[in-house]
Amino acid sequence: MGGGGREHAIVDALTRSSSVTGVVCTPGNPGIAALARCVPGAQDPAAVAALAVGEGVDLVVVGPEGPLAEGVVDALQAAGVPAFGPSRDASRLEGDKAWSKAFMARHGIPTARYRSFEDLPGALAYALEQPLPVVVKDAGLRAGKGVTICHAHDEAREALTAIFSQDGAAAVIEEFMTGQEVSVLAFADGVRAVQMLPSQDHKTIHEGDTGPMTGGMGVICPFPLTDADRTSVQSGILDLVMAGMAAEGLPFVGVLYAGLMLTPDGPKVVEFNARFGDPEAEAVLPLLTGDLGEITLACAQGRLDPGMVTFAAGASAVVILAAPGYPGEPQRGVPLTLPVAGEGERIYQAGTALQGEQLVSAGGRVLAVQASADTLALALGRAYRLVERVGFEGAQFRRDIGGRIGLTPEA
């Protein structure tokens, strides 16, 4: 399920899996259509379940967070179709940040100090008393863009006013944590969580981590996480989530995505997501040597073996090409010319469409340009050279991916 760059990467990995004989994608995109049969149409749970039954599929892999929150996995399970993804109630770990923070508090999972609010006056009174910077989050699903790091109290007032202009709104106000951010995605089967390679996304539109938040502008993988931190993340975060969710009658199946801050006091949770990250998937999955079809089916059936989850040596880098105007009103219909990617290079399509025979932009983040190499610096160099060969007038992209850990692209 899905039609973005993440889903292009998932379909690409599934088609490389010896266990998979064919892939149907709904709704898909022009890039995915080169690998799978795309079926456009309704994306509500009942329609997806009907499609899965009609196609006789053995497994449904859900890409985006929206259908999870709407209960697509519940509908598929009721129809007897195995699904890789959490139930509607389990997906609250991502879909309701206030619930998620309370869950972390209940189970002793390290995270930033916070308060949740369902009214603007209370939220404003609290925010204006907090030291700066302060973090304001929309408690609902906002595609990774409902977070504002406020360096002035007026910014907090503006962010909260925008949140509470929506019906049924809620906000989370957090202390600002310092350190390196890292994304740790894990395959989860309801009982155990098996880590994938750690990665680092770059969230803001402009270089130097400035400008508005986006869904993500580039990724390095693997992030150089120490063995001690990996162990701490497993025992002190992932295992506690899996045990806590099971204890509350919400066994978690799918991708457990822990967005972390490596603070002076150790790894702490910034937020959880309940699916593959986008664009983390585009960086992590090209290095997966395990059979993604086998892994996802094992998760859906509660029998994941950690030995299934294997990765190649080396590194991967992704540079996102976004449309002019993003993250505001992206320009659509910009002609795109894609070069032929070489070995270890991929161009995943995210916000694209066909106008006749011409590929054009059709969203905010349009292309994810990926390259693999022996080292991160070499992978970055390859990715940026591939970016230079893409025809996309006015494309926005960051030239400092990897800069937070001192990386510079190598030829």
TrEMBL record:
InterPro entries, per the entry: ATP-grasp, ATP_grasp_subdomain_1, PreATP-grasp_dom_sf, PRibGlycinamid_synth_ATP-grasp, PRibGlycinamide_synth, PRibGlycinamide_synth_C-dom, PRibGlycinamide_synth_C_sf, PRibGlycinamide_synth_CS
Alphabetical keyword list: ATP-binding, Ligase, Nucleotide-binding, Purine biosynthesis
Keyword Transport annotated: no
Cited PROSITE patterns: ATP_GRASP, GARS
Protein name per the record: Phosphoribosylamine--glycine ligase
GO molecular function: ATP binding; metal ion binding; phosphoribosylamine-glycine ligase activity
The organism's place on the tree of life at top rank: Bacteria
UniProt gene name: purD
Annotated metabolic or biological route of this protein: Purine metabolism; IMP biosynthesis via de novo pathway; N(1)-(5-phospho-D-ribosyl)glycinamide from 5-phospho-alpha-D-ribose 1-diphosphate: step 2/2
Family the entry assigns: Belongs to the GARS family.
Reaction(s) catalysed (UniProt annotation): 5-phospho-beta-D-ribosylamine + glycine + ATP = N(1)-(5-phospho-beta-D-ribosyl)glycinamide + ADP + phosphate + H(+)
Class of this enzyme: ligase
ATP-grasp domain boundaries: 101-301
Any Pfam family: GARS_C
Cofactor: Mn(2+); Mg(2+)
Species whose genome carries this gene: Deinococcus aquiradiocola
Enzyme Commission number: 6.3.4.13
Gene3D superfamilies cross-referenced by the UniProt entry: 3.40.50.20, ATP-grasp fold, A domain, ATP-grasp fold, B domain, Phosphoribosylglycinamide synthetase, C-terminal domain
GO biological process: 'de novo' IMP biosynthetic process; purine nucleobase biosynthetic process
Keyword Ligase part of the UniProt annotation: yes
